[in-house]
Predict the 3D structure of the following.
Amino acid sequence: MKNYRLISLIFLMTFTAGACFHVLRELRSKAKDVQRETQAIKAVLPDAQNFSEKGGNPPHYKGYQTSANTEKDLLGLAFVTTDLAPEIRGYAGPIKMMVGMDRKGSITKIHVISHSETPSYVFDLDTFLDQFRSRGVKDSFVLGRDIDGISRATISSEAMTRAVEKGLKLAGHQVLGLETSVLLLEEKPSPIEQIIIPLILFGIAVLGVVSHNTIIRWTALAGGFLYFGIIKSTMVSVVHIANICLGKFPAFIQSPLWYALIGLTLFTTLIWGMVFCGSLCPFAGVEEVIYNIFHKSKKRGLKKIELAEKLDRRARHLKYLVLLSALIVSVLLGNASAASIEPFLTLFTQKATRLGWTLLILMLFAAIFYFRFWCKYLCPVGACLGLMARMSPFKIKLGKNCIHCDICERICPTQAIRMNEEKLPVIDYPECILCGKCVQKCPKQSLSLRGFAHEKE
Amino acid sequence: MKKSEKYIIILIGVATVIVMGVIYENTLSVLRPPSAKIMIDVEKVKKEIRQAGLAPQEGMHWKELP
């Protein structure tokens, strides 16, 4: 498809422009930071009448009862967590909080200045942060024991807890001269399973692609559903693409799964094509199961519905529009949370607005009648990975002994194969999920996965 | 155009609108202050209850602090 070159160009330009725009904005935002911090100090030390400039070691603000600004009038301190604990980051980057503390070293209030965490995961920040009130420099801040984390947002909860604890004890000890309890700063190494299991799953998926084996492919899909969907509630999302554009990466030690998932997805897509979409995506697996339940039986199953070829081709452009919209909005806001649109998040976290739930129910309903409806017309991740899949050296390629039987076109579940004027199959690689059905069913075994394919588009 | 094709097109259209709506909602949640709570205007509620002919205690909406 000639359009793919244009779409790839538009995407690359948007991505690059977005990254540059974000860098420039970050450089210019320092003046606004001061304003935001001023508002935040008033929120965390509401009884203070007067505040000092930020200064000292560690950097902090002082709040005074009167305008005299003497030590007698000192009400408390306020500090920004990213000043005192810059190395601690949330899932999508630093979480900037203003923490107020009184003279005895107890927290008065915490005000979030900015964060890039996904809104559906950190719905109720206020309730979470209220737990910290009155906790002091001698208290422990163990997540799960002293502090209840936010369900399904462990990395965000842990980052906020550690940042507040470190800042509180540093400021309490060095500024107020208070005795503090031991600061548990050791980085807990994340379980190695977050690297090993994705490696195994991607290995199985690639094996399924290379061997065109449906059982191996379904094993990978089931593994992806169980591990990425149920256990970890994470998958490749357009939020990741937006975060990469904004240069926001979590710390490797805290979230090796992020790096394993994104790295392996990019690697397998660039080498073989749509491996993740075709063999690992949990939501795609759910869609396929729903479709197969209703279409398995030829007698009792629902009739296959297809759009006319021209309409279908045009409708598939929508997912590129969704991708670009999500990316542009994220860049303009400087926050990838705007791109959190996939029904996957709703399905596996059960957290969404009414519109989010409506979208999920609609997509599951559409999956009854249409194979991978979300993937084909709306999935922004599929759109992005599809553009990369065009560059993969290994592709399903046509051999010389094609007998023009059209079986491959009819059997392809995503209509990625179309016959050209010479009645030869042309494969639309960004739409090909590498299920291998065309290779299995070809009577002359004319189709096979080969390296360094040179397909004319 | 077949009926089934019309239904798919309508479905695609509705889904696209919902996706754009979700992006809009996410944008609003990012632009809102992170720690914002929805505040009830107590004075406004009291006025509306008095206009309805009820005393605040009868409205059972809040306890007046001594």
The beta strands of chain A are 50-51, 61-64, 74-80, 96-102, 107-114, 394-398, 417-419, 425-427, 447-451. The two ends of chain A are 5 Å apart (CA to CA). The longest strand of chain A covers residues 107-114.
